[in-house]
Amino acid sequence: MTVSTGDRVLVTGAASGLGLSLVTQLLERGCRVLATDVHLDLPSGLAALPGRLTYRQLDVRSDDDWTSTLAWVRQTWGGIDLVVNNAGVASGGRVDLTTSESWDWITQINLLGVARGCRTFAAMLKEQRSGQILNTASAAGLVHPPRMTEYAAVKAGVVALSESLRWELEPYGVGVAVICPSFFRTNLADSIRSADPSASESARKLIEGSGRSADTIAADVLRQLDAGKSVILPDRDARVAYAAKRFAPWLYRAMMLRTARQAAADEEAAGGARRAGARVSS
Ligand SMILES: NC(=O)c1ccc[n+]([C@@H]2O[C@H](COP(=O)([O-])OP(=O)(O)OC[C@H]3O[C@@H](n4cnc5c(N)ncnc54)[C@H](O)[C@@H]3O)[C@@H](O)[C@H]2O)c1
After folding, report:
1. Quick one: average pLDDT of 160-185?
2. What secondary structure does DSSP assign to 160-225, as a single string?
3. Ligand 1: which atom is nearest the Cα of residue 179?
4. Ligand 1 neighbourhood includes 52 CB (under 6 angstroms)
């Protein structure tokens, strides 16, 4: 289903990164855009954009925020053509350093935030018998590298939710697609909560050192959405990793084991250095 002039679009996590790039490109297409994010005031990146843009605060963890957003959409637009559940945060590191709080935090935003968006707008979309939902997952939702248990689990949840919902809404003429990119440059590293500094640092390096920009990813996402793709892999790294898992499992296993063993060796070395330091100071 193509996204075109006049379409009414809601985007979550729109103040930065992929959300901001999607808003920019949707406005360029002539869409009417309701950009939302956690911030109360209009974020600076959105303020300068030309086009039919409205900003509202929407914390994807808040049922009340979703209810009032739905009311705004109903009252102002009388319906919706595209709901983009994009807001997200990041985590990473050894599973033994994760906590119930860290699992709850990322689940509430990255998985239940998407689920709330789908639940809130499903009835309206079904009634219209038109429109679509676009959920942002990650390549980590399809391939699951070591030391990313929390992030991989919630993103795999978004992939599963999106497929299940795609079948559910298809009879009503409503589309559902999911985005699964590899690392690209955004402010995502600033959101990382992790008790494992080495994992946070390597995630930061991968995000901030990526050769891909959010603009490039957004352009590819919209191209693939127009082409009717339901699982959108917007970059080569994501496509290669997913293909390796499905068609060359021995290669996938070798890649994952190499990464895991290197991380385990680094951890042992750091532990040894800490123990030696403790002996010297005692
Ligand atoms: N950057 C990457 O390498 C990468 C790779 C794969 C998937 N993703 C996914 O892309 C999506 C967008 O992330 P990004 O990379 O553009 O990062 P970003 O940090 O630049 O943007 C994320 C946005 O989400 C907002 N947000 C965070 N918590 C929120 C909440 N509770 N309610 C509403 N908004 C909230 C932030 O304020 C921010 O504006 C995320 O779902 C992320 O997991 C990113």
Report:
1. 98
2. HHHHHHHHHHGGGT-EEEEE-----BSSGGGG-B-S-HHHHHHHHHHHHT-S-BHHHHHHHHHHHH
3. 7
4. no
